[in-house]
Amino acid sequence: MKSLWSVTLATLVKDIRLEWRSKDALNSMLFFSLLVVVIFSFSFDPLAEESRHIVGGLVWVGFLFASVTALNQTWARELRNQVLDAYRVSPAPANALFLAKALGNFIFVAVLEALMTPLFVIFYNVRVLGPAWQLLPIAILGTWALVVNGTFFAAMSLRTRSREIMLPLLLFPISIPAVIAMVAGTTSILTGEESAHFYLVLLLTYDVVFTTACLALFRMILYAE
Amino acid sequence: MKRLFPILSAITAALLAYALYQALVVAPADAQQGEVYRIIYYHVPSGWMFMLLFSINFVASIQYLVSTKPSRQAAAKWTVIGVGVVGTIVTFLPQVQVQLKSAGMRPSAIATTVLAIPVFYFLVGKLFPGENLDVLAVTTAEVGVVFCTIVLVTGPIWARPVWGIWWAPGDIRLTSTLVLWLIYVSYLMLRRFSNSAQMQVLAAALAVFGALDVPLVYFSIWFFRTQHPQPIIGGGGSIDPRMLHVMMLNGAAFLCFGFLVCWQRFRLELLHRETEAAHAMDSLVGSGVAAKASLPLNRSPQ
Asked: Which residues of B touch A184 (CB under 8 A)?
């Protein structure tokens, strides 16, 4: 158990340090989601009342697309100099690598969300009518839902031709229930018309189910020959 | 075996023709919908077929994933037996029976279905050992996607005159069928984009993810109203016995047809893999003897 956490922590710190020095993933994600915000704001010109109903969908679709650009770089980095092969022959537990990557992606996407949410608020003139603190658990659970499957499928699409295209093709269909829950939950909080508890429970279930599935199957994916 | 295929094809063609005649001419018109409803004889049997094929795909994928290690195999075996036993006992609890009846489901039908899961699991494992499990998975996924497409196409054609809309966004059955279709299309894409040996494990893992996803999709739209009627068999709907007869006939015809297509696809995939292996062997040996010797052109079909 101790080695699992120490390996996880070491890999996570390495990833964050790499990202801190290069800022590849963050810069591309930030600029991408900025473009999404701007293009959406040209396409729709909503009144304040309408924007409350659509902004939940816009925000999460924007973050979903942006996170794919970061997720694609997760494992590609390890292919250079055969780092992944070295990892495979090392005695370190496979799940430690997966957890580190998923946590790293979670942090990157969370930073992106923290920076981009104010922009959405400004562009769409959003005022929250429901209990605003509930947006935080929705954001945390929703981000984890995107990131845990995204990390897994990025590892999967590593083995295919044209892997950058493959990741969203695999990730989006599986993410549909999570996206429904995030969007509907956010909308119900913004409009204050109904309770978001159902969607929080749904997101929690989704996270538990797929985190378990990822941890159970990642070893096979990593060592698949 | 060689003669069985034409015979079976002839029987299937006759059955399909007879079922079509029954569906279009013999079956009575619906009291409310008139003649439009006759599309049900394609819509519903295709729905049964894709559910059957996708469940076979799921079972084959799990079997393939656990087949690498005996300990995993044993664990999966006991889990499946446990699910069958516990599920059957649960359906006979009085509280659950009341719940099921109020939801319009027959407890005996549920119990039979639950009991069928382990039987199904062991049958698939017994009939398709080793690498054949993966061949079975790709076969059922491909044919299942075709049937699912038929359902998704005939559904809107039927919905337009009856509901007044092509598609009911947020409907439980429509959305979960569409998501299932999307998942299996991405499954086939994954198989197409990667033809290495690792792909089989990846595809099996994706099938498991897809199967986990479907109940979540179902619950995620729990709150939305549903347009789609209850299932007519084992559900709360009711149907004229003459219509039910034609429906079962069409179901049998589609089952034969699906089996026939799957059989051919299975054989084709086996031959394809053998040819590939022979070519790989050939390029290793470098002479061309190996490929010629084991090219499966003159062999009788399996």
From this structure: 220
